[in-house]
Amino acid sequence: MTKEYKTIVEVSGPLVFLEKTEPVGYNELVHINLPDGTTKRGQVLDTSADMVVVQVFEGTGGLNEESGVVFSGETIKLPVSKDMLGRILSGSGEPLDGGPRIVPDEKVDINGASMNPYSRMPPEDFIQTGISTIDGTNSLVRGQKLPIFSGSGLPHNEIALQIARQAKVPGSDEDFAVVFAAMGITNEEAQYFMEDFEKTGALERAVVFLNLADDPAVERITTPRMALTAAEYLAYEHDMHVLVILTDITNYCEALRQMGAAREEVPGRRGYPGYMYTDLASLYERAGVIKGLKGSVTQFSILTMPGDDITHPIPDLSGYITEGQIVVSRELHRKGIYPPINVLPSLSRLMNSGIGDGKTRDDHKAVSDQMYAAYAEGRDLRGLVAIVGKEALSERDRTILEFADLFEDRFVRQSRDEDRSIDDTLRIAWEILSEMPEAQLSRIDNKYIDKYHPAHKTSE
Question: How many domains are contained in the chain?
Answer without folding.
Answer: 3
